[in-house]
Design a protein that fits this description.
Elements lengths: L2 H4 L6 E5 L4 H12 L3 E6 L2 H13 L4 E5 L5 H15 L4 E4 L27 H29 L2 E6 L13 H21 L4 E8 L2 E2 L2 H4 L4 H8 L8 E2 L4 H8 L10 E4 L10
The structure holds nicotinamide-adenine-dinucleotide (NAD).
């Protein structure tokens, strides 16, 4: 097969949650740049408009829907609106998520008492679980009937290396939420394989985005995480685009329940 057929997403009706920023925006961009018709869904209306304008400037067909992925009704309404506009939904990126704050060690490798497990607030648990895990469940639930109706489709979840790798510098609740995401998508992949629906995940390592109030935009934070990578740098969002396109395209048609770890070797450890 030719590369242009393997990775052909032309005209694919695509949804990206959390598409106004960061990794979601990068997924939307690679889909739009390759001819997909993309709807960005996000809780941030101003961010949505800015992101859509940027994508439209290169000629893409892009639409927006304001959605809070913790609220099933808002996701449902937005999916209905996409289906009404385009007649179907074929590719769904369940990407929206938030940070759970820093880990129990700070950048000086000292314990931060405010991040000790006994001091983590319960409302943070509820918020992170609802946004990172509950939202993926709700999005898959709402997407599935549309994909079944097409005779197949793609769900690409943004998981994390934190689903597998225990991390001192990443919030405990976040790590737990992503571990839940990993098993949820494998279970969904098993159930939906017979319907020709593939459910896979991007598993980024630390990546420069606006997550956590933009703390990873900080040069000091980037330098710190660079020292934890064997390739001596943090990811940027365009590092996610190859795997995003692969998982959304015919090239991955016999792949399901899988994570693609995109971390420059971060989870392998350090070399020199
Ligand atoms: N940046 C990293 O280091 C990293 C690493 C691994 C995984 N991830 C995951 O990548 C995904 C995207 O995060 P990012 O790093 O691009 O962050 P980001 O903050 O740049 O983008 C997240 C987007 O999600 C939106 N969002 C947040 N809560 C929402 C809600 N309730 N409803 C709808 N939209 C909502 C935000 O408005 C924002 O536009 C998340 O699932 C995150 O956990 C990030």
């Amino acid at each position: 097969m030719k590369v242009q057929d393997l990775f052909n997403v032309t005209g694919k009706i695509t949804i990206v949650t959390g598409g106004a920023s960061g990794i979601g925006y990068a997924c939307a961009e690679v889909m739009a740049d390759n001819g997909a018709i993309v709807t960005l869904m996000d809780i941030d209306p101003a961010g949505l408009e800015k992101a859509a304008a940027k994508l439209k400037a290169s000629g893409a067909q892009v639409f927006t829907e304001v959605v809070d992925v913790t609220k099933k009704e808002t996701i449902k309404r937005a999916f209905e609106s996409v289906a009404k506009r385009h007649g179907k939904i074929e590719v769904v990126f369940a990407n929206a998520g938030i940070s759970g704050g820093p880990g129990f060690l700070n950048a000086e490798d000292k314990r931060d008492p405010s991040r000790a497990i006994e001091n983590l607030p319960e409302d943070l648990w509820d918020r992170v679980m609802a946004t990172n895990l509950g939202s993926v469940f709700k999005t898959i639930q709402i997407a599935t009937p549309y994909l079944k109706e097409n005779g197949g489709g793609k769900i690409v979840v943004t998981s994390s290396v934190s689903a597998f790798k225990i991390e001192q510098y990443v919030g405990t609740i976040y790590v737990a939420s992503k571990a839940g995401v990993a098993q949820l998508l494998r279970q969904a992949a098993l159930e939906l394989a017979a319907y020709n629906i593939q459910v896979n995940a991007l598993a980024p390592g630390p990546c420069v985005t606006n997550i956590g109030g933009g703390r990873l935009q900080d040069k000091a934070a980037q330098d710190f995480f660079a020292t934890k990578h064997p390739n001596h740098r943090m990811a940027t969002t365009d590092d996610m685009q190859g795997a995003a396109l692969y998982l959304a395209s015919p090239a991955s048609r016999h792949v399901t329940g899988e994570h693609i770890i995109i971390d420059g070797g971060f989870s392998l450890g350090l070399a020199d």
